[in-house]
Amino acid sequence: MIIKLILIVIVCIVIYFVVQLNPFQHHSDVQETNQAAATYTLEDNALFRNIPLSQVKTAFNFMDKSEFMAVSGLSLMGYNDEYLAGKRGDQYILYKFGDSQVLVFNDESSLQQALLDKNQHIELKDISSY
């Protein structure tokens, strides 16, 4: 009787772990967003190459935003306390201050969806706004 009870408990535990760890059932918004975007490392950016990741936001706050846009090749840019978004050529970028990776999207709707997934709203403005 006790052996049957132990076997039932073990089967229930195995079923629980199979359901919880099944990769086909768990699709987080962040994973889907990251799959829709290419990434590059922040160290590839000449402006931030020698700045520790923990200080990128502080450095950005001290920069003249119109000069930053000109040097970075951004035609549109927006930011808040957590994220920097922009348009460079035909691509849209999203960077979370302090991260080592920058997400690159092919269209604005993908960028806006990524912002919605992160509960963020950033309005992209042209250089004359800064």
Q: Your description of this structure?
A:
Strand 3 (83-88) and strand 4 (91-96) form a beta hairpin. The chain is of the alpha+beta class and 130 residues long. The longest helix has 19 residues, at 2-20. It has a six-stranded antiparallel sheet. The model is unreliable at 24-33 (pLDDT under 50). It is 39% helix and 21% strand.
Question: Largest sheet, if any?
Answer: 6 strands, antiparallel
Give the overall average pLDDT.
80
Q: What proportion strand?
A: 15-25%
Number of strands: 6
What is the count of helical runs? 5
Rg from Cα: 22 Å
Shape: elongated
Helix content: 25-40%
Q: How do the SSEs run, as a string of H and E?
A: HHEHHEEEEHE
Instruction: Report the structural category.
Output: alpha+beta
Beginning-to-end CA distance, first to last residue = 76 Å
As laid out across the biggest beta sheet, the strand order is: 1-5-4-3-2-6
Please describe the topology of this protein.
Blueprint: H1 2-20, H2 29-35, E1 38-41, H3 56-62, H4 65-72, E2 76-79, E3 83-88, E4 91-96, E5 101-105, H5 108-117, E6 125-126
Antiparallel strand pairs: 1-5, 2-3, 2-6, 3-4, 4-5
TL;DR?
The protein has helices at 2-20, 29-35, 56-62, 65-72, 108-117, and strands at residues 38-41, 76-79, 83-88, 91-96, 101-105, 125-126. By secondary structure, the chain is α+β, with helices and mostly antiparallel strands. Helix 2 packs antiparallel against helix 5.
Task: Give the key terms.
single chain, 130 residues, alpha+beta, 6-stranded antiparallel β-sheet, 5 helices, elongated
